[in-house]
Design a protein that fits this description.
With 474 residues, the protein is of the alpha+beta class. The protein contains 13 helices and 24 strands. It is 24% helix and 29% strand. A hairpin with a 2-residue loop joins strand 5 and strand 6. Pfam families: Beta-lactamase, DUF3471.
Length: 474
């Protein structure tokens, strides 16, 4: 049978990007109403051995795991064991932050929606083995600027994790519920709540209550489990060499038993397409009910605005008006991992793309597939932006300054020839104003919006880039 036109259009758009970015392997799958509509592996799960990547290749999905964490929380709520608006101190009484009054107001909902107020913290360096930049023996490692050496310890338990958090020198971004800023730490703490409430390890709970009921036979967390699968990817890294970028295999996967809930599931394209039916059907995978319809509605509700036309639910990005329908999605990235899932529940579409190189433009690639399947140009924007609304040159100065990512990484915003620019990734990116303190920039393939935030006096105090909020340095 000949390929449908949209499949050819997708592959013609995707292959040059895959080649240009030197992606060893990426697999894409789409279902319509739970039935296979498209499966395609581009390249290899092991480039050196020329082993092809397939829909049954086990790969990491990184932060897509957060949606599994939220499913678990909703299941426990259905069982009457917790409520999402419970204070987190009811389950984590030893949690300490720089502002204990704010800590007392933090709820499970705030953790699930990334609105607890946590900035980017260096906890992963003490919780994950195999990080690309995880050598804290280096005297110049940034972790030493936030945690004294004598207070650094390897994280083996949730209690260790909270102890390390209590020693970090940082300030909350604001009171709970005030600001969206993506937080792996909040999700690690959700994993601890799941363990304490259920009486099981996080890993065992997810296996018993999601993976097994959903028939996800090739999915697990423990790296020791990988040897039992027929197909497992090699993970790859990108290094800048004198002759240009070079992709090479890395034998050490990232491993962090305490931080599983924030992003460490290993799975396949086929298993993920089974899982995503939860959101298409209102809680069912086949005849197995994983969640109630009410819980799915609560997970997919646009709880907090996170960007231009986009919101965060529970473990899911929510675009209420995506070309006339609702779009649910989440991406993920770790060393050797790039993943993106999309659900268009009203249209019966579920889609997933997983690659074995972190630098893969995975969101754009899956957008190509969704766009062509729906009859749009492959590069149609995820969120169509409004027309440019010019800002007077004098008014642009209010946005200029330095915005803090971490203690040793900052982003400058300057004005160059009456154009606002952002220093990012070694480039000066022009920012196009579209109103309401939103600006549009193009870093890679697709344009994205960033937003400046003001305090009550009208002063610009922070900047949202991607999923994180960056305070402006005074």
């Amino acid at each position: 049978m000949e390929k449908m036109d949209w499949q050819e259009q997708f592959e013609q758009a995707a292959q040059p990007i895959i080649d240009q970015c030197q992606v060893p392997g990426v697999c894409v799958g789409l279902n319509q109403d739970g039935k296979s509509m498209y499966r395609r592996g581009f390249g290899y799960r092991d480039k050196e051995r020329h082993w092809e990547i397939t829909p049954d290749t086990v790969m990491g999905v990184a932060s897509i795991t957060k949606s599994f964490t939220c499913v678990a929380i909703m299941q426990l709520q259905e069982a009457g064991k917790l409520e999402v608006h419970d204070p987190v101190l009811a389950y984590l009484p030893e949690l300490v932050t720089p502002d204990q009054a704010c800590t007392e107001r933090m709820t499970i909902h705030h953790f699930m929606t990334h609105t607890a107020g946590f900035p980017l913290l260096p906890t992963d360096y003490l919780a994950i083995k195999g990080l690309p930049d995880g050598d804290i023996a280096d005297e110049n490692h940034p972790i030493h600027k936030q945690i004294k050496k004598e207070q650094q310890k390897w994280v083996n338990t949730p209690e260790d994790f909270m102890e390390v958090m209590s020693h970090i020198d940082y300030q909350l971004l604001g009171p709970p519920g005030a600001q969206f800023s993506y937080s792996n730490d909040a999700y690690t703490l959700l994993g601890a709540i799941i363990e304490r409430v259920s009486g099981k390890t996080y890993e065992q709970y997810i296996i018993d209550h999601i993976l097994l009921p959903a028939g996800m036979a090739n999915s697990s967390f423990a790296l020791q489990e990988l040897s039992k699968y027929k197909e497992v990817t090699t993970i790859y890294r990108l290094a800048e060499k004198e002759g240009g970028p070079e992709v090479y295999p890395d034998p050490q996967w990232e491993e962090g038993p305490v931080v599983l809930a924030s992003g460490h599931l290993n799975t396949t394209v086929n298993d993920m397409l089974r899982y995503m039916d939860i959101y298409r059907t209102g809680g069912l995978v086949g005849e197995e009910r994983i969640l109630s319809k009410a819980s799915v509605e609560q997970m997919t509700y646009p709880h907090v605005r996170m960007g231009y036309g986009q919101y965060y639910g529970y473990g899911l990005f929510v675009t209420p008006d995506y070309y006339g329908t609702t779009k649910l999605e989440h991406s993920g990235g770790l060393k050797g991992v790039a993943s993106q899932m999309v659900i268009l529940p009203e249209r019966g579409i579920t889609a997933i793309a997983i690659a074995n190189l972190a630098e893969t433009p995975i969101v754009e690639l899956l957008n190509f597939a969704i766009n062509t399947q729906e009859g749009r140009p492959a590069d149609a924007p995820s969120v169509p932006f409004g027309a440019e609304q010019p800002v007077a040159a004098a008014d642009l100065q209010a946005y200029t300054g330095t915005y803090r990512v971490t203690v040793d990484r900052k982003l400058p915003v300057t004005v160059d020839s009456d154009v606002l620019t952002l220093g990012l990734g070694g480039k000066q990116l022009a920012l196009r104003p579209i109103g309401d303190d939103y600006f549009v920039m193009k870093q890679d393939i697709e344009e994205q919006a960033i937003r400046f935030h003001r305090d009550q006096s009208g002063q610009v105090t922070s900047l949202s880039v991607g999923v994180v909020r960056l305070p402006k340095e005074v």
